[in-house]
Amino acid sequence: MKITVVGTGYVGLVTGTCLAETGNEVICVDIDAEKVSKMQNGVVPIYEPHLDVLFERNIKADRLKFTTSLDEGLVFGEIIFLALPTPEDEDGSADLSYVLNVSEEIGKKIQSYKVIVDKSTVPVGTAEKVHAVIAANASCDFDVVSNPEFLREGFAVDDFLKPERIIIGSSSDKATKLMQRLYSPFVRSGNPIIVMDEKSAELTKYAANSFLATKITFMNEIANYCEKVGADVDKVRAGMGSDSRIGKRFLFPGIGYGGSCFPKDVKALRKAGKDKDYDFKILESVIKVNDAQKTVLLPKIEAYLGNNLTGKKIAVWGLAFKPETDDIREAPSIYMMKALLEKGAELTVFDPEAMPNIKKSFGNTLTYADSMYGATEGADALLICTEWSIFRTPNFQKLKGLLNQPAIFDGRNLYNTEDLQAEGFTYISIGRKE
Ligand code: UGA
């Protein structure tokens, strides 16, 4: 099949590349000429494990192409994916201007039947709006389908190739059949393609992300309470998670959820509710609790190092919002570092992938270390914000030798408390006995 993907963010790029992998011919369109030229030369513009191999293979096979010309893209594909940004507006709602502007162009340019697929996370009713904007300009037949994406950064290729489910919101049999044909190679293991109306599909995405954010936040509150009563959240998590109705995943407490999706989507759903006079009280609480959770370790650091952090040196391991990505959007590390800098602390930081991005916003207010151990040299404490694998089994004796004081504040519960105490560390984590 011939496919066009408009927008080469991580969703668009992964979608385009993985669809080429099953033999489709794919053109990806982006307005960023520099990025397009890089991609034409085989450079993957984002860090996403395994994407480079597929990218190179499909470019070589001539199945994956890039262009800045929307016109070229709109003529090429029978199916046109919109993978455009829907940033947070000032009031928390999703800004649809990118999606609607491209829709207008689609209406003006298409000459033959096309299926327009909303892949972006968009509020309920967007497919209807996109349909209306295209219809106002189009002279040929077309359908609009909602096909929300459930990729996780860092696992995006795997999630695309082996999805647990595909959601298709469509009211056209013709479009539904084309979408089912396109996705059939990815669900051969029997995972479902669930077809529903467009609005339900759009809401499924917000409901899924908001539920997962709520699940994490609930666990963070249980962790905070564990500390008050001397219980251990890891034990509680294992006990709860063994109930298949609850499930083991997404129960890991920490210094809050971040990223480009959960924070934005939870706020957008709350705002969408308000617009319909519906007050999502749960989401209101989730936002509040998560905001506070990002700096939950701050008072503990102050209790250890003293209220005046001026001149105190703190090493920070992990800056990305989660491991296996260089993405720092809404990363809890940012909130912690800002709070520590405000209190006068000096921070030396290390992250395997996200340092260039952090440097762009923090500049020379931070010291950037070449290695994880390098960051800890002469530091009064180590703070861990992201659970990269390389942080999981450090040489504790080496670390103790490098740190000025053997103290670890762990926002991701990487280590066993008794082990660290036996090694002679002051070890403070989330929701566990100190
Ligand atoms: C999330 C969803 O998991 C994807 O299904 C969805 O497609 C994507 O948003 C999106 O809307 O595009 P992502 O933001 O890449 O994916 O990251 P997650 O792995 O879900 O993690 C989100 C945040 O939750 C991270 O900050 C992570 O540290 C935190 N988290 C996750 C916890 O604090 N505890 C957990 O148990 C799990």
TrEMBL record:
Protein name: UDP-glucose 6-dehydrogenase
Active site: C261
Highest taxon of source: Bacteria
Residue span, UDP-glucose/GDP-mannose dehydrogenase C-terminal domain: 315-417
UniProt source species: Ulvibacter litoralis
Keywords from the UniProt entry: NAD, Oxidoreductase
Catalytic activity: UDP-alpha-D-glucose + 2 NAD(+) + H2O = UDP-alpha-D-glucuronate + 2 NADH + 3 H(+)
Gene Ontology MF, one: UDP-glucose 6-dehydrogenase activity
Enzyme Commission (EC) number: 1.1.1.22
UniProt-annotated binding residues for substrate: F150, L151, R152, E153, K205, F250, L251, F252, P253, G254, G258, K322
Record-level GO BP terms: polysaccharide biosynthetic process; UDP-glucuronate biosynthetic process
UniProt keyword Ligase, yes or no: no
Class of enzymatic activity (EC top level): oxidoreductase
Family statement drawn from the similarity comment of this UniProt entry: Belongs to the UDP-glucose/GDP-mannose dehydrogenase family.
Entry annotated with the keyword NAD: yes
SMART domains for this protein: UDPG_MGDP_dh_C (SM00984)
Pathway info: Nucleotide-sugar biosynthesis; UDP-alpha-D-glucuronate biosynthesis; UDP-alpha-D-glucuronate from UDP-alpha-D-glucose: step 1/1
